Amino acid sequence: MPLFCASFAAEVPLALVQNRRNIFTPNHVGSVCCLFFHNKSRPSSSKPLVSLSESNQTHPSSTMETQNKLVLTPSEPEEYSKKLEVAVRVVQMACLLCQRVQESLLSKSDDQVQSKDDKSPVTIADWSVQATVSWVLSEFFGSKNVSIVAEEDIQVLSGADAGGLLEAVVKTVNECLSEAPRFGLKGPVLALRTTDVLEAISRCNSTGGATGRFWVLDPVDGTLGFVRGDQYAVALALIEDGEPVLGVLGCPNYPMKKEWLSYQNGYRRTISKLSPSTSESGDKGCVIYAWKGSGKAWMQPLLHGEKKLVWPNSARPIHVSSIDNPALATFCEPVEKANSSHSFTAGLAHSVGLRNQPLRVYSMVKYAAIARGDAEIFMKFARAGYKEKIWDHAAGVVIIQEAGGVVTDAGGHPLDFSKGIYLEGLDRGIIACAGAKLHDKIIRAVDASWGSSSL
Ligand SMILES: Nc1ncnc2c1ncn2[C@@H]1O[C@H](COP(=O)(O)OS(=O)(=O)O)[C@@H](OP(=O)(O)O)[C@H]1O
Ligand SMILES: [Mg+2]
Ligand SMILES: [Mg+2]
Ligand SMILES: [Mg+2]
């Protein structure tokens, strides 16, 4: 029985435009910027609410090869639109990078997976994505203006025996950045040196906080899924005064149409079944994004394979499921028992009347599944003493909320992104639901069963 079975809204195609340098640049920004300026007084439409006009002006210090000038409503600063635009483009690039590294990991027998101090896995992809995103954001916005909280550091890479690993990261980063023009971004004039790459990774050393703006990056969320050839996500969010205001989730193995996802059979089988024969470039993955306050979230296909720039220019609105009957609802949770108590959620499921098998998926693809309406509930109850990190949740929270869902801790309070790198004060666990009715039921069930749990 397929676990994913809802249908999607019709695709919203947008045309490509050609600029004066003969580089195809996307006007997909239309599909992005609509997120900021959704206005209840506007006529309702499934199309992104933005108009574009061509201009000869290019941001003088920008790395973005665009000559599309956005026509924005006066209420929002134009810099917000640029942030989301750059974020979506760089996440697209990062997803391609990850796909290549994952293929290589799966096809080679040599061990390319490293262990960090806490024994968690890390790969060339984690460091390479962090370096790439850091470099692009710094180039585009100016390194002085960019503050990034991210998962990885250079500790392992700086080890005496890490020369080969570091070389592989530098090569992977340069390969990825050389494709920047396909995504409407400028890459470096000269290939990055080892020191540049290390610098880009280490620059992501912000510790967050309650004031100002900072980016939050999980370069590969669900690294375990990644190394197993399964689901993972590239997650980038912008936090402003302690609240996530922008979220982008790149899901390279989560197809636009979930009917193509045969989860029980293992993802590798799905890839090999689909990849040679598919015609749509976005068949294998998707990128989902949202902007706080827009009341909308969007999904576009993942680009891959083509030599020349073929920007998808299609974004479709996504929305949470309308199912509020527990008997029809599906809940998702981490794959590993070590990351979330399966026995506690099984008890909750029973008491609330959930009948479907849990959907166990690696990474923030779980948040994507709720936002797309593929499942109704996400629950995570980590062991006592584990502190959730902001990069594991920030992008997913804003996307689910804008797609119409609810995300809180088990006490019903919003997740607090203002206290540094951890979700300090988190009450017991995380509960995300398609709607308030299901959410209330779960919260009440947690209260009723917490005392007798061993958590
Ligand atoms: N002990 C423990 N408890 C709870 N959570 C933990 C724990 N250890 C790690 N992590 C974080 O979980 C992130 C992966 O979450 P997933 O939902 O993908 O988990 S699972 O692999 O599906 O079980 C994972 O993110 P990545 O490191 O980016 O993969 C970690 O940040
Ligand atoms: Mg990790
Ligand atoms: Mg993570
Ligand atoms: Mg990670």
UniProtKB/TrEMBL annotation:
Bias (Polar residues) ranges: 56-67
Catalytic reaction equation(s): 3'-phosphoadenylyl sulfate + H2O = adenosine 5'-phosphosulfate + phosphate; adenosine 3',5'-bisphosphate + H2O = AMP + phosphate
Species for this entry: Nyssa sinensis
Region (Disordered): 43-67
SUPFAM superfamilies xref list: Carbohydrate phosphatase
PROSITE patterns: IMP_1, IMP_2
Cofactor: Mg(2+)
One of the record's GO molecular function terms: metal ion binding
InterPro entries: DPNP, Inositol_monoP_metal-BS, Inositol_monoP_superfamily, Inositol_monophosphatase-like, Inositol_monophosphatase_CS
Family: Belongs to the inositol monophosphatase superfamily.
Name of this chain's protein: 3'(2'),5'-bisphosphate nucleotidase
An example Gene Ontology biological process: sulfate assimilation
Keyword Zinc listed: no
Record bears the keyword Magnesium: yes
Keywords carried by this UniProt record: Hydrolase, Magnesium, Metal-binding
Organism superkingdom: Eukaryota
